[in-house]
Structure formats: structure tokens, C-alpha cells
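Ticket #4471: complex job returned nothing on first submit. Input attached below:
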Amino acid sequence: MTQHWEDIKNADLILIMGGNAAEAHPCGFKWVIEAKAQRKAKLVVVDPRFTRSASVADYYAPIRTGSDIAFLGGVINYLLTHDKIQHEYVKAYTDFSFLVKDEFQFADGIFSGYNPEKRSYDKSSWDYQLGADGFVKTDPTLQNPRCVYQLLKAHYARYTPEMVETVCGTPKDKFLKVCEMIAGCSTPDRTMTVMYALGWTQHSVGAQMIRTGAMVQLLLGNIGVAGGGVNALRGHSNIQGLTDLGLLSNTLPGYLTLPGDKEQDYAAYLAARTQKPLRPNQMSYWQNYPKFHVSLMKAWYGDAATKENNFCYDWLPKIDKLHDVLQVFEDMGQGKVNGYVCQGFNPLASFPNKAKIGGALAKLKYLVVIDPLATETSEFWQNFGPHNDVDPAAIQTTVFRLPSTCFAEEDGSIANSGRWLQWHWKGAEPPGEALGDGEIMAGLFLRLRAMYAKDGGAFPDPILKLTWKHRIPANPSSEELAKEYSGCALSDLADPKDPTKTLVKAGEQLAGFAQLRDDGSTASGCWIFSGAWTQAGNQMARRDNADPYGLGIAPGWAWAWPANRRILYNRASSDPSGKPWDPERRLVFWNGKSWGGADVPDMRPDAAPAENVGPFIMNPEGVARFFARGGLNEGPFPEHYEPFESPLDANPFHPQNPQAKSNPAARVFKGDMEAFGTPKEFPYAATTYRLTEHFHYWTKHVLTSAIIQPEQFVEIGAELAQEKGIAAGDRVKVRSNRGHIIAVAVVTKRIKALDVAGRKVHTVGIPIHWGFKGVAKNGYLANTLTPFVGDSNTQTPEFKSFLVDVEKVKG
Amino acid sequence: MALQSLDIKARSATTTPSPQIRKAVEVAKLIDTSICIGCKACQVACMQWNDLRDEIGSNHGVLDNPMDLSAASWTVMRFAEHENEEGNLEWLIRKDGCMHCTDPGCLKACPSPGAIVQYTNGIVDFHEENCIGCGYCITGCPFNIPRISAKDHKAYKCTLCSDRVAVGQAPACAKACPTGAITFGAKEDMLDSAQVRVDGLKERGFQNAGLYDPQGVGGTHVMYVLRHADRPELYHGLPQDPHISPMVSLWKGVAKPLATAAMGAVAVGSLFHYVMKGPNEVSKETEREVEKEGEQ
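Support reply: We reran it on our side without changes. The output follows.
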């Protein structure tokens, strides 16, 4: 989230799209209700299904699954052509006036630099024109045809209401009604907030869907203000913490990045990430990258990390490519992986094409599963009749199951969607032999370290020299780990303003990441978490809910990264002169000497407005980007591409160009392209989703949850049900090109057939929560059906749009 | 036996006068269906607080589950899909359960002394240890709420968490509701709160929004805010104008005084049973109890 949950109450309009907050986030959804009750806010829901969120919405518009960029591109076009944008905001705080290289082109769905064989782009043309001074050239009049504003306008001129209706199946009048409501928030005193979740993320163009939503918000001047923003509703408890702490294959803690295998040179690695300002006076905060990186390496390797050995840079893995989950299972299936440690992860249930996942697991020599529950993955080798029809005798994988604690059985912090790190305390002792994840990992580590110490090995140093100063080495406490990621001084830190004074004494906790140094005198395991545990103690454990400005910001409640800031880019809540756009919502403003207000300013405190320091401090331009440059893999402007399994034969925007049908830059493994189904054989769009009664594959183990939603079902529109002779309560078989499931049919008016590009598109809704372990009735894993392809940037699988056939099970 | 902090106002099949000294605040639960998302947290909270665990059932082609109230499910969400005059869909979701009538048909109909009580705060409670399982309460209920357990042949329903309320706590469902659709407090305050909610709905274009507090049963201590208060039946058959069944009036008004003869009571009892369960055999135990009641 750019915001935090409570801030939603400040919105005048709430757009829920690519998510179903009432269903999947019922507790956070209370702030939508609060906005409705207190601000008379309106709620708009755009979704293929009339959801639980829609049931309490003021307006609902249907959309075909996977067509959100077409819809939002249409909104952008509407706002530009109806002049419903916040002019002063976009001129001052975005790249509207920036000039783009002449080489950048877009033709029939493909951007310049495309290599069809590699399915990837040379992105060198996707950039600004630079002047002799090294800064981006601009045209403040916005007349230059190469300025971002003009390119944006031209790009989305194709996204007419008629085209939206054709591609999305959203009736034109409903689309225009939504546009009108959104346009009402282009004034400084009215804001819209956007709530999305996996309904945007889990597409082959997921990251671009989110970007399109962010672009709408920028046009309205709604980023960095109270009641605005783009809000990712995180699904798993602590999935936010997972990305924050760098558990993805190519990241390091705090969104630092692992070097690629061509980056053997330390100085070059740092230089590529230490971005210099692209406009005068900009903060370009990643200029501090070396401070964050060196402090991380000091946290990991202590005294072993020295300036002379480049702070152990050579010990970091240099990756050849992404090793995301899809890639790992692809490799596993090819027999290239011996062992796999599966911690808090149930891939047989959670990843696409169950047959492929199960087949890959069967090629392992060993599988270690660390989980509080007996997961499907841990029993992938057992025969559970039709729900897992495998031959155990043919599977030789040894499975070790290490029972772990669940969150209520341990102390620690969980990062919520709003980036708050909230400390929690153990509520119960773990059952049986269950241990905390930290204790399990420590046990593995200490054994490995002893083996390396005894036997040596090709490269023992990164293991042998890892810092391990825990009081109980076999069981590092959550407190110790939290202090480590927050960070401390390794030697006395002199005050830069007065070197005779000591700012922080050696061994003391740091106040925040502003104190980090690149000379090895500080350690912090995750720079964005720096300040979570200061010399004053555990900031995450604070529970003061005082809200001094009445904006729902309680700075004394828990701790938010970065720097306890609750709303990102909050400098943008004031106009260029530093005065709040909306006098009623004074988030952050210039008081004549410094920045202050309800929130921790996202700005150098003494940066006078006249200095023109832009609010988007992480970008070297200081402004927000409509033109993403090389940030995303499929283009600087989001373009609609069809899901890899689409009910249409072509992309209606590019009917003559098969290369532009689906995301041209998405990675598709050999064999998976062939495993995509065609609309001829699988005529219905399908989408998977969660129900409020259950949480993923966990709560089928919980009796009360099993009672309130006991048995697997799929949702089918009344019209399709009639065509296929299916009555509510019948058992139906849903088939994709990868397998089938059998479930009870819920026949509903909440899913309507849509008229798309001259044909009728039905959608089959598939809740995911069933499996063959737990107390609920056994069912099929929904991911038996889903395709093995992901977003080209994140590799998040396309769980939300694929093709199926459905038929009544006879007898 | 009621908690010391709950005075009893009325007690089934009892003529002993109720205590009069203490002034209890009349309470009510307000359910705003317009912001209910049907998450069923209330169902789970009810199960957990009251130590109830119903069977793991089946899916019957709808989202509702358990499908109906039972001795172990004292509240269930009822989902109804309604296409309005403009052709737009509305998904009307209602938490079903005991309405805690001011004029409780169940209590009036109950022949067993002290099996059903009404507290001075308005809560209608079943004391199962006194229940004889005759099922008259079901006939007496205009909302079809009580259910007889197949296991112990006693009637069960929502207690409005009388044990929690007795110590100043809100019912478990209200505590668990994530959106504030269920609130609890003094009935007077709940009526004020309802008015604000109804006004808000009218501003949003729901001209027929209103409060469901049916006067045919003297008002209720569970009330609904409805977008379509003119058509409560849209909400999975919520009765338009509930009244206590004439059978109960017959029992109370005519049959009971006449039933000094045991046979008369047995006849009425059999009739009740026929209405409730069809032509099942009346158990000997029930017959005996009813005879006993008739002799009093």
C-alpha cells in the first residue's frame, strides 16, 4: 500500500478492482464502511463477478477477466479527453513535460526493440532525451510531440468507450458511469483510493494492470495524499514482510538486488544502482545504495566484511536468470534439482498445473517441508483417490516433515499491507514437536556449519563466517533478529555536522537508515526496517492509538517502514508552494522553515519549496512516471494483451498481429505453450479466487471454517447453467487442457455472460480452498486447471484468466 | 436458572409474579444488512462462544452453510439474489436467528414451566434443562427459529449471549462483526443509530430503506436495517407482518382454561404436534408432560 488501512476512511471514492476486499480482507474492509458512513464516500466495484464487495457497493460494473488494462486505459483516455485531471499536480509532480527519445516507437502492439525469438525487448530506446548537462530535456508547454503527455495521449486515444465495451464486455453506459465517478475526484478536495489484490497481480500482465491503476491516480493527483493511493491488499499474513526481507530469488533485504553473473565487479554493481539525479536538485534516494548494501553485508558477515574484500561481495551469488518458483519447478521437472526445502509453502496446492508440480516433486531425491500443517505438498506421493491419483511405489522422493509453529505460537513482528511492523506475543505453546521456524533453520545451519568446519569444502567461507551471535545459538530469539535488521553502530559514529560530537556510540541501536554509512561502521540487516528497534526499544510493540490530526494516523502505534512514515510520497499532498491541496486534510506541509504535519514527511526536512525537490524521491527524476522507461519488461506504457488462454482469437486492439495477442515479453517454457487450451475446445473463461470463509489451504484444517463452507464448489452463471442443463447442486466436471476437477455447481445471477468482440463470453468461477488434507470434505486442488505462465516481471502465475469446459457429471 | 444480574420478566407456564424492583435497560441488537458482507464471522463467533459444533455438511448449490438453523447452529447467513427494477443485481444477505420478540410466541406456547424465560432487558432465553421437547415453541414462533435436537430432544436457539450481556458484554456475533453491521446496546440507542443509517441509505437513493422492528410481535430485540423495508420478504423470506400463530392464542386463550381435563390438553398437544412434525407419534413422555400441564 502507498497508504495504510485506516487511511481508506479519508477517501471520497473507493475503487475496488482486481480484488474483493469484503471477501478476502473483511477486517480491513471496515475502513471502506467508515468512509461511506463518515465522508459519504461512494464505493465502485469493477469485477467479472458480482462479489461480496459489490453487494455493499454504490455502483458495480462487470468486466471480462484479464481485460483491466483496456478498462483503465479507457479511463485514462476519458480523463484526458474530458480534461478531468489535476493540472498543477501532473505538471509539477510527474514526467508529463519530459521528452522521450525519438527512437522510442509503438506499432501495432509492439514497442521498439522487440526480439521475437527471445520474447524480450532491448529497452535502450525506452528512455528520455538527455541534455548536455546530463538532465532530462523537458517542454513545460507540453506541446512537443515527444513529451510524455503527448505520447500518453496518443497511446490511449485508441482506448475509446466503444473499444472498452468490445474488449471488456462492460456495457458502454456502465463504463462511462464509472469514468464520471472517477473524474469527480480530479479536484484537489476530492480523492479516490484504489484497492486491489491478486485480481490484478495474477495475470501475465499483472504488474502493468497495477501500473495503469497508478497512472489513473496520478492524473487525478491522488498519490501521496490522504484518502488516495494505490493499495495492494496483501493476502498472506506477512507476505509483505517476505518481499521486504528479500525472499524473492533476485532480491536482497530492503529491495536491494542480487548481482547478475555479468556483475563480477563490485564498483560496477554499486554504480549501476547508485542512481544520479536526472533533474536538478532531486534527492534520488538510491544514491544511498552503497550505505544500505554495506550495512547489510556487515550485518551478515561482521568483521569478515572489510573494505579490502569489498565487504564480501564475492560471496554473494551472481544469478544467471530469475530463479522464481515457476523456473525452479521447470528445472525440477527436468531433473536438475536434487533437494527442495519448502518452508511455509504448499506449492502442490498453490502453484499452477498441479500435474506438472507433482511430477517435478517426484523427481527430487528429498523434500523438506517446514509447516504447522500436514500440507498436500508433504503428501504429494500418497494416493488420495481421484483427488491425488498417483502411484506411491513409483515415487522415490524422501520427504522430511518438520512441524513448525504458527504465528500465535511465537513472538515477533508481522508487516501488514500498510507496511506496519506490529509486534505480537505468543498466545500459546506450540503442540507436540513443533519448533519455531528460526529454531529449525538455526538447527539446519549449525549442522551445516559443523560439517563445513570438519570437512572443508569448495567454498566454506560464506557459511563459516556468517555472523551468529545469538545467546542461544540453536534458537535465535525474535528480539535478537529484530535488533539485527534494525541495525546498530559498529564503532562510534561522528556527527557529520560537528565531528567532535558522537552521534551514536559503538554497539548502540541506530535511530534509522539516515544514520547508515558505507564505510563499514554500521550494520543493518534490512535498511527499510532501520528504526524499528532503536536505542529506546522495540518501536513495533508500541500501542498508542492517539491520532493528533484526525487523519487516522497514529504515529505511536507500532512502526511503519520507511521511517515510521504512514503515507508514501506524502510531500505530494501539498502544492508546489508547500500548502496542502486540501485544507481539510493537512497531511504534510511546509511551515516556512521545515516540513511537518500529521505524517513523517517524505522529503528532506529543510528542502524549501523553492528548491523544487520533487516528491517522488526514489526516482532520480524526482517525479512520478507515466512513461516507465525500462522499469517493466513489456513496455513503458501499459498495453492491453490477452491472457495466454483467451476466449478470443486475437487481441482486438491488434487483430492482425499475432505477436501482440498476449504479453510479448512473458516467459513461456517449452511444452507449456502447447499446454495452453484453445477456445474451440475450452470455450469458457475461468478465474480462481478466495472465499471469506476460508484462508488459502489452511482453514480446511479448522473445524469451524469447515462447518461454514464444507465442500468444494464452482460458480456458474444462470445462463450458462441453463445452456448446459446444470442445476444448482449438481456435480460438474470442469476441464482445462491440464486436468479436471469435479465440484458442486453453485448457479448464480452474480456471474453474467458478457458480449465481447462479437461473441458471448461465459465465466466459470473457481474458489481454491479445497484439497485432500484437513477436516473439510476432500476436494480437488483448483490449480489442477491453471496454466504455467506468469507475469513477465514478477513471474506471478496467471491464476485469474484461463479457459475451461464444463459439463454436468451424469449419474 | 437465570444469572443473578438478569431479572426474569416472564416465565413459561408459570403464574408466580416476576420481580419488580430493579430497572433493567432494554437491549437490542441492530443488524444493518446494507453493510453486511455475509462473511459468517458471526456464525463462527456464535459457535465458539456457545461451544457449538454443527456437522460438516455439504454444498447444496448455494453459498449458505449450514443450510438451516439447527440445535447447533443458532445463526446462519441467508443469501438472496434480487434483480431490481433497473435490472441491476442486488445480493441481499441477512443474518438469521432469534428476533427476541417483545411478545414472544415461543414463551406463550411453551407448556413446560421455566423452559423459556424473558428477561427484563428483553432477551428471550431457553433453559433447556426444563425443556420437554414438545416443539410448541416452534409453532409459536412467527420466524421459524427454534430447533429440536435429535440428540437430546430439546429446543435450542440464539440466547442473544445472555451470559455475556449479563456481565456487560455485547453478544459474540456483534463483537466479531468486522464491518460494524451488527451492533448492540440499549434499544433506544439502537433505534437512534438505525435512523441515521436509514437516512444515509435514503440519501443514496434507497427510498424504501427502513427499520424492521415488527409491531405485530410487540417489536423485537433484534432489528434489521433494510434497503427495502417495504419488501422484507426479499431478504430470504423475512415475514412482512409477523404475528403469533392463532394456534397459540387458542392454546392460551381458550384451550388452556378448558384443559382441566387431561384429554383436552392431549388433544391440543397432538394437534400442535401434527402442525409441527406431521403425523408422528407423540412420545409417551411428552403426553405425560402435557397431561401434567393440563392438570395444573
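Chain B has two domains: 8-244, 249-295. Closing as resolved unless it happens again.
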